[in-house]
Amino acid sequence: MMTLLKRNNWLNGPSFFDDFFGRDFFDWSSRNFAAEGQSLPAVNILETNDAFKVELAAPGLKKDDFKVKLENNLLTISVEKGEEESLPEGVHYNRREFFYHNFQRSFQLSTDVVDVEHIEARYEDGILYLTIPKREEAKTLPPRMIEIA
């Protein structure tokens, strides 16, 4: 079992969570970026006995807009969106609040803990879901009774 505490990463030492996903989770450098003045999509990371589940909120996109790449144990989720389609002649926006921008989120995975060969992804209702299975040896075993001789 793991306890999550809200903390400021640069004021406190590393946690297990940081060690598992690498300190890149809180890294706003070139591996975790969005267009200037834009925020990155929110991410939830859940843990079960069998897997880590990543949920990335990105409404208004299509599954084909995403690229999910694993290279040297670095899992990268990115979107490169071009300009929206042009409007018909004589039509213009009076107000435009929809904005789709490029972004990238990266997470360093530990091959000691996760099975990188069986990562799955799906996009549904504005959320990208990734399932990152744990290796058998990293799963918590149920308690067992030990016979006393």
Q: Based on the structure, what is the oligomeric state of the protein chains? A: single chain
Low-pLDDT windows of residues: 1-19, 22-30
CATH class of the domain at 40-81 and 101-137: Mainly Beta
- How big a fraction of the residues is strand? 25-35%
Helical proportion, percent range:
under 10%
CATH architecture of the domain at 40-81 and 101-137: Sandwich
Helix and strand sequence: HEEEEEEEE
Q: What is the straight-line distance between the termini?
A: 31 Å
Number of helices: 1
Shape: elongated
Structural class: mainly beta
Tell me the major beta sheet. 4 strands, antiparallel
The overall strand count is: 8
Rg, alpha carbons: 20 Å
Strand order of the largest sheet: 1-6-5-4
Describe this entry's structure for a reader.
The protein is mainly beta. It has a domain of 79 residues: Sandwich (Immunoglobulin-like). Helices cover 4% and strands 30% of the residues.
Summarize the structure.
It is built from one helix and eight strands; from the N terminus they run αββββββββ.
Compile the SSE list and pairings.
Blueprint: H1 16-21, E1 33-34, E2 43-47, E3 51-57, E4 66-71, E5 74-79, E6 103-108, E7 120-124, E8 127-133
Label this structure with key terms:
1 helix; 30% strand; 4% helix; 4-stranded antiparallel beta sheet; disordered N terminus; 149 residues; Immunoglobulin-like; mainly beta; 8 strands; elongated
